[in-house]
């Protein structure tokens, strides 16, 4: 059975966390093991660019990324959910991604399956969640991850506004279920 890691780029108890919980619940019905991590709630040091991980394949920092890296190594699917901030992914998620360099150096990320989801607070014409999604897919391309699904939501400013997009939400949950359990 596939193992899934859901990385939530928002520490708020809002739309991103709501979606992560819904995905985990949907997959649990098929007995898929899923873990949710919220980097913003963890002790993760900012990458200094020392490049020691390029030489050694591990980061010198001793923080929560040690267990996160183990979860990523064990995962068949990685689902990244980010809120859109100024057309970009969240700062917490950027710090997390930067710290994945040791996995890139070792080739551990190569061909892992990525589901990328961006959630925007405004309409698509204002502050586009598609650009945050593009940041995730650019990361995936650079890290040799295999993007198997991309999705974005707009108009999700208030807590659980994503629920108002029930049809789109359910279609996404069904797509994820089908991808991971078939």
Fold and architecture overview:
The protein has helices at residues 15-28, 52-56, 65-74, 91-98, 101-106, 129-143, 166-181; strands spanning 3-8, 33-37, 77-83, 113-119, 146-153. With 182 residues, the chain is α/β, with parallel strands linked by helices. It has one domain: Rossmann fold (3-Layer(aba) Sandwich), CATH 3.40.50. A 5-stranded parallel beta sheet has the order 2-1-3-4-5, with helices on both faces. α1 packs across α7 (166-181). The longest helix has 16 residues, at 166-181. The chain is globular. The termini are close together. 36% of the residues are buried.
Quick structural gist:
The protein contains seven helices and five strands; from the N terminus they run E-H-E-H-H-E-H-H-E-H-E-H.
Largest sheet: 5 strands, parallel
CATH superfamily: Flavodoxin domain
Distance between the termini: 10 Å
Using the CA coordinates, give the radius of gyration. 16 Å
Task: State the CATH topology.
Answer: Rossmann fold
* CATH second-level architecture: 3-Layer(aba) Sandwich
- Strand arrangement, largest sheet? 2-1-3-4-5
The general outline is globular
What structural class do the secondary elements suggest? alpha/beta
Number of domains: 1
**Helix amount:** 40-55%
Number of strands: 5
Mind telling me the CATH class? Answer: Alpha Beta
Unreliable runs, pLDDT <50, ≥5 residues?
none
Total helices: the number is 7
């Amino acid at each position: 059975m596939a193992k899934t890691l859901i990385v939530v780029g928002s520490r708020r108890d809002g739309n991103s966390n709501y979606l992560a919980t819904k995905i985990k619940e949907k997959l649990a019905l098929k007995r898929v093991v899923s873990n949710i991590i919220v980097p913003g709630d963890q002790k993760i040091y900012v990458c200094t660019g020392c490049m020691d991980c390029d030489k050694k394949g591990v980061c010198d920092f001793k923080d929560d990324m040690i267990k996160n890296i183990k979860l990523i190594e064990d995962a068949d699917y990685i689902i990244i959910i980010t809120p859109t901030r100024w057309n970009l992914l969240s700062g917490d998620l950027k710090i997390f991604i930067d710290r994945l360099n040791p996995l890139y150096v070792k080739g551990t990320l190569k061909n892992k399956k990525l589901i990328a989801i961006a959630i925007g607070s405004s309409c698509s014409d204002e502050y586009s969640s598609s650009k945050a999604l593009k940041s995730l897919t650019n990361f995936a391309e650079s890290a040799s991850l295999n993007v198997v699904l991309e999705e974005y939501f707009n108009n999700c400013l208030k807590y659980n506004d994503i629920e108002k997009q029930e049809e789109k939400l359910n279609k996404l949950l069904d797509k994820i279920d089908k991808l991971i359990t078939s």
